[in-house]
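Quick look at the format.
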Amino acid sequence: QGKYTFADGLEYKDKKWRYCDGYDRRFYTEICSGLKPPGISQLTNLDPPKKIPEGCYDCGDGFYNPETRVIVDYKLRFLRNADDDEHEWITRTCRKAWDETIEHKPKP
């Protein structure tokens, strides 16, 4: 029994949880304060987002350095070492400090 409230004020609901369910892709701050005008994207729940250190990824609770496999919090204090599964997930899905140009390849 009890309840869980995230640091940004979002309260977890065991039933009818609709946040980040695949249909509504807004961040919690967008739900509370509204969407930005067209052409101005909000990249994270924190707006403006934290600047990611060179060569690192933003993994949600801090920054990940894939060379050292260390995750630090947003004040750059050690949190944990990433195992193989977490490393793969972060490098596949998380926001990185650099931009890449990706070419569209149509299906044959």
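Next, a different chain entirely:
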Amino acid sequence: NMVMSFRVSDLQMLLGFVGRSKSGLKHELVTRALQLVQFDCSPEVFKKIKELYETRYAKKSSEVVQPQPQQHRSPEALSIHSSYDRGSTVARTSISTTNIDYPVLYGKYLNGLGRLPPKVVKPEVRLVKLPFYTTLDELLKPTELVPQNNEKLQESPCIFALTPRQVELIRNSRELQPGVKSVQVVLRICYTDTSSPQEDQYPPNIAVKVNHSYCSVPGYYPSNKPGVEPKRPCRPINLTHLMYLSAATNRITVTWGNYGKSYSVGLYLVRQMTSAELLQRLKTIGIKHPELCKALVKEKLRLDPDSEIATTGVRVSLICPLVKMRLSVPCRAETCAHLQCFDAVFYLQMNEKKPTWMCPVCDKPAPYDQLIIDGLLSKILTECEDADEIEYLVDGSWCPIRAEKERSCSPQCPILVLGSSDVNGLLPTPNGNGENGKAAADVVDLTLDSSSSEEEEEEDEEDDDDDEGPQPKRRCSYEKGLVSAC
């Protein structure tokens, strides 16, 4: 009854006292306040309600400091075990008007401690940004999982409700696959470490229950190496399919193993992206102009004054090191020191399935926001369709490398056949003339194609001037003997 008689400002002060969102219409504020009374009516909360009620009817004035510009605040959920800021004994809330927030400090006693100076601010846990997830709303800021007893298995509940706008965003979003919406409510868990943005990290024995059903949590990657423990892909956990997409309250319970390490959980409304969408965004904003790429080539090939060796060129393969296919969208990280590229299409697809964001060329981090498409190599790929490798020259120009493969097909020295080293054990030649050119040509006409025949003739003509004439003769006689036996 006391809560139902509150004004909007009273409701906002109560909700702000426990860290819940103060935005919305009066009936939404009343609903949140009643949920608070129902699920977390601790002594401190009851005292606050009583104080506000008495103030309401005693017409007492509150202590108000100078107004400050209103900041955008995302809706927040209430975590039952963490309704208060453990890092500070200051309970801070606001009286919201249309355009102004009036911060209010209350001299209440929390955990038996008095009010501390307002300068004390606990650093917040931050999670790393994930390329495949665009955050739309923060439903619950990263909040520490605090054990309630000495048991190894702990349960931490959390209650929250979606706004009508958030429900519509989910319902109207497209399906990535049957039953999986692109707009989702996800749970993220990380170490409680405020020194830097944290990657997702699950605690031991994790289980997540949404309302009345357990949610699927990613399993372990199998390990093929003996003695190596399998790794677990720690990703955002999608809760959407088990939630009430209405004004109803959703209850999430995280079960976790308490083994000394501290973890924090956060809830977010996100839009999940696909590799095709990230590729299109990269093509839109991530192409590096050919002239800038050319300048980079010249810079890398510039002669170092301290070096006695001048670099005349550097070779770059047009084959992707990931899939051994010709590059289609040549890509690398701005932080990479090499000119060699990998294919953005396959790189994004691989990280969509198993996110590592490591460069396949130098094995160093190549995060999405550092990727660039090489405009110069893209141009070269369209102009050079008959070579798998090019060489950049000092002046920034390039030339295709084709001769290397051709030379490897025509040996520069005679090939010795096993078993033919005995000079006295020559096989008889059918024509008996011993002319290397003709013998080789006769055999090649039967067994090889025309291009190989020309190479053999050229090779034998070179061998005529060689002092060791019997070696090619022996090889040709052996081949003719094999052909005639067939």
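The domain at 277-302+311-401 is CATH 3.30.40.10 (Herpes Virus-1).

See the schema section for token definitions.
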